[in-house]
Amino acid sequence: MRMKKMMMFVLSLTMLFTLCGCPNKNEEILSDNDTVSIAIVNGYRENCPLPPYNSLTVSDAIMESAVSYGKVTIIVADGMPYAVADFAIEAPERNLSSTKRRDIAIAQTQQIIQTISNAKAQTEEADVLAAINLAARSLSDDVGDKVILVLDSGLATAGYIDFTNNLLRIEDTQTVVTYLRDTKALPDLSGMNVLWVGLGDTCGNQQPLTPSNRETLETIWNDVLLAAGAESVFFSNDLPGAAPSDDDGLPAVSPVMIYGDPTFVISEESATKEDNIQPFDKPIVVDEGIGEGKVLFLPDSAVLADPAAAMDALKPIAEVLIGFPEVRIVLAGTTASAGTREACERLSYERAGTVRQLLLDLGVGSEQIVGIYGLGYENAFHIPDKNPDGSLNENAPANRSVIILNAASDYMSLIEDVPQKAF
Fold it and tell me: What predicted TM-score, i.e. pTM, was given to this entire model?
């Protein structure tokens, strides 16, 4: 059953119960082929708002399993995902009316929702892929339609998909799929549909995602789930619930670093100091590559391949700095995981110096650039860029970058212990 069809099924079934009255007592409301089994991945943890347990998307999906006499499994997506409960919904006596059967299904649905809403994280961090794998295992031997209902932000912080490794910066999301396939870490979702509620929703210490971050997050999970064999993947737009209360005592979950979008422009006409705007509150990454917004260097060099294109890419950033002369920034160069540590630190420092000169040429005051760092490939901004065999993958160009940081931002703590070497 395709996901959109599944979403409409419960509504049409409820209307059928309401409008048609009782079926013949010798007839089953549903055939065995209509049985729907659901495995629910529950992201009740720190930095995630409470899933919208009573939304139509969630309640209708559970109701469909209840009216079809399927099975519902509940799994918590924490650092060590675990199963909370299995509900095997048995068919009632044959002589019950359709109205009575519907009432029983509604009561069962409410009971399951109550159980989900009390199923909290017990272990630090969040391994969402492992939770999905448990969900798939719970459905593997079931007959009929199989649905994995994910109630989670998707910001995993542990396991094979760990967004604290800066996966939101990845441009070629297929590198994640390739890595999971090479390491045999893809779950088996054959014959299963995935319905995801709450992707990208955050609270607590987790900063909100930018639109580009959210798009990358969705693309990664969509690609992974389809590569794992899912028949369909559907991301619902249900609004998030409230943040967990302070007395929930939830285990710690590391926040995922969020990057700013580098193509914004704030002119003096559209934004003034009175607007209380703080430019560069998130890191701005200028990485190596071909295309709009890129600064391309010659291989193993701090010499620009196309100085004019680099100037065009940095011009919007320079305009912001010129409009806010009180802002102070630092430039941190990074490299891919190739070469010696010292050579990579030197190269990244020199490339940061090149970007500094470009900004000065565009009119940025020298007093605004208060530091240059050469981080090489050992830094908090690094994206995994090696295949299991040690060769570089498609993420390497994103690691050949210069990162612009507001010197007054909390992100400075990520580099404050790095010496500013003058190579």
Answer: 0.77
